[in-house]
Amino acid sequence: MEIPSTWTFQENIYGANVMLFSPDNGDEIKENLGVSVQKLGSGDDLQTLYTNNKTTLQNNFENLAIKDEKDLTINEIPAKEISYTFSQGDYKIKQAQYLLINEKKAYIFTYVALTKTFDEYSEDVESIINSFLAK
To answer: Which of 119, 64, 120, 70 lies closest to 92, judged by CA?
Structure first.
């Protein structure tokens, strides 16, 4: 996985296998990208993974507003993306999740930022995700 030199990472934190953190630029919340890897059950496919994940999001965030849902490919692997916003205290948060299955494992990448800083690191996040799965 290629991480920009200005980003840092920690393993096994906040429920993620790996958590990457953007540079400290004084934001109220540091932008981050969590990577979770799960073994799949028999019969699980991308649509099932996505549907279950979306249901979990809707159950966990009372004020969840889904902004976009789409199918895409990441390094020629079918994937799904969902982006959404919610409030947490005084903060307006935007998250994007990228879900895919590769070699019988589910990968969930979750990018978290304030709505006002979300676009600032979107290109870095896409590069990190693409490098993670590059062979």
So the answer is: 64
Residue whose C-alpha is closest to residue 108's, from 91, 133, 135: 133
| Total domains, the chain | 1
Nearest CA-CA partner of 63 in 82, 34, 84, 80 = 84
3-state secondary structure of 1: coil
- 9 found inside a domain: no
CATH code of the domain covering residue 76:
3.40.1000.10
State pLDDT tens for residues 51-62: 999 999 999 988
pTM over 0.90: yes
The pLDDT mean for the chain works out to 91
